[in-house]
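Final paragraph of the annual report: two paired records, presented back to back.
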Amino acid sequence: MKIVRLFEDEMLAYEQEVIRELGLDVTIEVRVSQTEDEIIANAKDADVVIAVYEPLTQRVLESLPNLKLVLYRSIGFNSIDLGYATKKNLPVSHLASYCTDEVANYVLAAILMHNRRLHDFNRSIKVDHKWDYELFPDMRRLSSLTVGLIGFGNIPRLIAQRLQAFGCQVMAYDPFVAEEVFAQAGVEAVALETIFAESDYISSHLPLNEQTKELLDRSLFDLAQKAPVFINSSRGGVVKEADLVAALEDGTISYAILDVVSSEDPDLTTLPFMSMDNVLLTPHIAFYSQEAFLHGVRENMEHIQAFLEKDYAHAGIVNLKGLDLDK
C-alpha cells in the first residue's frame, strides 16, 4: 500500500519508524501538492493520502483511482468534499486527540493573559512609556466571570476543567452532546444566543462545514451584553469576518484573540485586524508542540492499522455512517 503525504514537514523518519513498529506493509512518500492539478499528478498512484489543508475536491477525488483512504493530520477536515467522498464510499479519517492539550492551554493562556492585561500593560510600558497600574480600572477577578464555549468536544471539555480551577462559571453550546455529558462536566448547556448574551469570554471550537460557515455573525455579536472577549482557535471560516470587525470597532465585542482568520495564508497587507489595537493575532499555532507532531504521526498510522484490520470504529473515520466498507 502506497501512502502519499501532500505536505512537507520533518516527520518522515518518525513516520517510517512507526510504520516498522506497527508492522504495516506500506510505503510512504512526501510529494508536496498545493493545487488540484498537483495533487492529481502527484497522488495518482496513492492508496492513501495524508492532508491538512490541500484541496481534495470532487475533481481531485475522481482523478485518484487507487485511493482507498484519506487521512487528515489535523482535527479539521474541511478541505475535502466530504459529501462526494461518502458517495464514492471513500473513508476520511482525522485526528481526534493529538493536540487537545495544546489548544486547551492556548485558550486558557489567552483568557489569563487578557484578564490580567499582560500584553496591554507591557505595550503601555514599552511603547507608550507609561508606568500606570490604573490603566485598566475595569479589571475583574476571573472567578466572578462567565466563559462561554461554542462546541463541547474534547478540547472545550479540557478547557472547562482548567477554568473550573479558577472558580469561574462555564457554559457551553453543543446540540450534538448529550445532557448528561454537560452535567458530568459541571458545565451548563445553553443556547448559542445565551453564550453571546451572558458571557464575559467566548471561545469558538466549531468545525468548519456548510452548516457552520460564517455562523458567528452580527446577529449573534449584537446579543452581547458584557462587551465580551472573543477567542477563536478553531477555524476562521466559522466567523463572518466583516461583522466581527464591525463589532470590535463599535465595542460590542471588546477584544479578540484570534489564532485563525478566514484564510490559512492571509495577506497581511489587507487583513483588517492588523491595525486594530483590540485584536491579538497568532499564526494558527494553538496546536503546536513537538509532542503534538509525534502524537499526530502515530495516530495517523494507528488509524491505517485499524483500517487494514477492518477495525473501522477505531480508524478515526468521520463519515463512517455513510459508508459500506464491506463491499
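The closing record of the year follows.
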Amino acid sequence: MDTLLHFVNLVLHIDKFLGDFIQVYGTWVYVVLFAIVFAETGLVVLPFLPGDSLLFIGGAFCATGQMHLGLLILLLLIAAVAGNTTNYLIGRAIGPRVFNTHIPVLERFLDRAALQKTHNFYEKHGGKTIVLARFIPVVRTFAPFVAGASAMTWSRFQMFNVVGALLWVLLLVLLGYFFGNIPFIRQYLNVIVLVGIGAAVVPVVLGALWKMLRKNGANASPR
C-alpha cells in the first residue's frame, strides 16, 4: 500500500520530481525520460507509467532553459517508435504460440477465429488504432502488442507507428513548451493532467460498456 501511495504521489507531483532530478543529476534527465517513454510504450507490463504528463512537463522545462527542446523531441521520438516496435515484435512472437499451445485446457478458452477477426480489424482499421492509441493511457501500451499478435503487416504498422509518435511527442512537448509555465496552468498542472487522462479514458470505457450491454441484450432477446 505504501508503495502504491508513493507512486500515486510521484505521478501527481511529477513536475517537482523532474525539477529536483535536473538540479541533482543534470543531463541524466534525458536518459530517464527516454527510458520511461520506451518502457511505457514497449513493455506491456508497464502501462501505468505517466507518459503524457512527462512529455508536457519536459516541454515546460525546455521553455525555462533547463532542457534542450530539439534534443528532447528527438530522443522521445526515438523512444516512442522503438517502444512500439518492441511491443509489436513481442506480440508477433508470443501471439501465435499462445494460440497454438496444444494444451487441452487452454484450447477450450483460446479462440483462433477471434484472433483472425482481430487480424482483419487491424488490417482495415489498425492504422487509426495505432495513431489514436498514442493519446490514450494504457491503451497505447496494449495496441502495438495486439497489432503484433494479430500479425498486422509490418510496413503498415511502422508507417502509422511513426505518424502516431510524431503527433504525440510534438503535440504534448510543444504544448508544455508554450503553455506549461503559465502560472495558472503550473498551479493546477496535476488537476489538468488528471482531467486530460479522464477525458481520454472515459469515452473508451463507456464505449466498451455500451458494446458489452448491446451484446448481452442481443444474446438475451428472444429468438
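The chain is about 80% helix and 0% strand. This concludes the annual technical report; the extension proposal builds directly on these records.
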